[in-house]
Amino acid sequence: MKSPGSNHHHDHLLLIRFMYLSVVAVVTIGLKMIAASVTGSVGFLSDALESVVNLVTAVIAVIALSVAARPADGSHNFGHGKAEYSSALAEGAMILLAAVLIIWTSGQRLLAPHPWKRSGSVWF
Length: 124
Description:
- With 124 residues, this protein is mainly alpha-helical.
- It is built from 3 helices and no strands.
């Protein structure tokens, strides 16, 4: 039989794990942005934007799921499940925004090509 605080402890451990993974994701996004900046590559920029969308929507989803898990109350007779729909709407909007930015940047480069930057370094 579980102790009363064990569920809270498990949730706390999951939150800490999520925070560590978020830090790794931010570092990865930073590296992708640096690569996009150094090389001028729209591909790297696209990958970085997709990673930003993934990270932000994961945070939004965690918040929405915690809200949706709340029981019904006086102002929400059927619970808080619609928070999940708000999360999906935000995710869709972010994907659309990232797509527009990628298409815009790609179109600009297609119309006015830039030479690929090389820093002379082995790494970049």
